[in-house]
Design a protein that fits this description.
16 helices, about 400 residues, disordered N terminus, mainly alpha
């Protein structure tokens, strides 16, 4: 026992380093590992052999199976930053999509020509940028922080695994482009949908104002003026026009996006690792930052394209409800009315624009978000090793 304790205590790897290379261990095994080190340290110090003390970190500060060590506030700020950047850059695409969806009698080319032929064309393309930035920025902040909290809880407590529906995802966690917890397909789908629906409900009032700002049916000059006009004409419920269609669109979209995104990252990382192993005669290496950025960006575009194609009808219905709530009433009334008036293709108005915008904005936001998280985690690990 004395020899075993001496070997455990004097090994060149501290407990922190050991835990770093064995992140796939679940919580119970990590607790057992900590107890083993603690018992070994006690025995070694009570023996006649010299021993070096072990520097340990609190269990809550140790990464677990891909879970994050960064704070919830950091995820909020990272989401806010990525949301504001993507909304500012891609506002013209969002405005054009709204104009095309407000009536099927127009097309993208006609709409674009009309804006460019008018006064202050550049300014008109970025009309509604302020409400869009507020909505997307804070919406992304709420979404990413909520999603992170849900995924961390599921990964750490095996919340869904106890029902038999979900198992923690397995695989090589070192060579991966992901900075997020590894969950099963069902967990990715449910956490993504729940986080988006929650954020969407909170941000619904600014979403309504944003859509009407972008439309040519309203001539609001300020956020306060828009809010006052909506409240006077429609009351408090006017700020939640189209929420049903928005929730039906956003929850499945976000769930499918996270599912497709994580699957795509995993497959592309495996392909990249296979190529790397072939080139280096089986030598395992950690993924380069440039490689992970490329994989995450491509995965974001593919995931957004697929999720957008499935959910576009609800986006078209949502736009009509928010622009003309008195005419279309609710989702169940709006869908058949749109088909009757403009045909089935009205449910897919703006699909190309939305797919292109979503592909770029989602890829940009998620890639930047994951890179910020990755750098924060690297800094945390460096500090942990320095304290060891």
């Amino acid at each position: 026992m004395t020899i075993l304790s001496t070997l455990l205590v004097n090994t060149k790897h501290s407990e922190v380093s050991f835990a770093k290379y064995f992140k796939p261990l679940n919580n119970h095994r990590e607790v057992s590992l900590r107890r083993l080190f603690a018992e070994s340290d006690h025995v070694a110090h009570s023996s006649v052999l010299p021993a070096r003390s072990v520097t340990t970190l609190p269990i809550e500060d140790m990464p677990k199976d891909g879970t994050s060590s960064s704070s919830a506030a950091f995820h909020f700020v990272a989401g806010l930053t990525t949301g504001c950047i993507s909304a500012s850059l891609l506002q013209p695409a969002d405005l054009l999509k709204t104009r095309v969806q407000q009536s099927s009698s127009t097309s993208l080319l006609i709409t674009l020509r009309g804006i460019l032929a008018g006064p202050s064309a550049l300014r008109q393309l970025w009309r509604g940028t302020l409400p869009s930035v507020i909505r997307t920025g804070f919406g992304s902040a709420l979404y990413f922080s909520t999603l992170n909290a849900l995924r961390q809880n599921v990964a750490r407590s095996n919340l869904l695994a106890s029902t038999g529906l979900v198992e923690a995802a397995k695989g090589n966690l070192q060579y991966s482009s992901s900075s997020l917890p590894r969950l099963s397909n069902v967990a990715n789908l449910t956490t993504g949908a729940t986080a988006r629906a929650s954020a969407g409900l909170i941000m619904m009032p600014i979403t309504v104002i944003k859509v009407r700002y972008e439309s040519s049916l309203y001539s609001y000059t300020s956020l306060w003026g828009a809010g006052s006009a909506i409240f006077k004409s429609e009351g408090f419920k006017g700020f939640f026009s189209g929420f049903g269609a928005t929730a039906v669109r956003d929850a499945p979209y976000a769930g499918m996006y996270v599912l497709f995104y994580e699957q795509s990252k995993r497959r592309l990382s495996q392909l990249q690792r296979a190529n790397l192993l072939g080139e280096t005669s089986g030598l395992e290496k950690e993924m380069k930052s440039s490689t992970s950025v490329s994989i995450n960006f491509l995965s974001g575009m593919l995931a957004a394209g697929l999720a957008t194609a499935f959910t576009n009808p609800f986006d078209a219905i949502k736009t009509r409800l928010q622009l003309m709530p008195k005419k279309y009433g609710n989702t169940f009334k709006a869908a058949p009315l749109m088909v009757r008036e403009d045909g089935i293709r009205s449910l897919f108005d703006g699909l190309g624009l939305r797919m292109g915008r979503k592909a770029i904005s989602s890829a940009l936001a998620w890639t930047l978000y994951e890179e910020l998280i990755r750098r924060a985690e690297m800094r945390f690990e460096d500090k942990s090793e320095a304290r060891a």
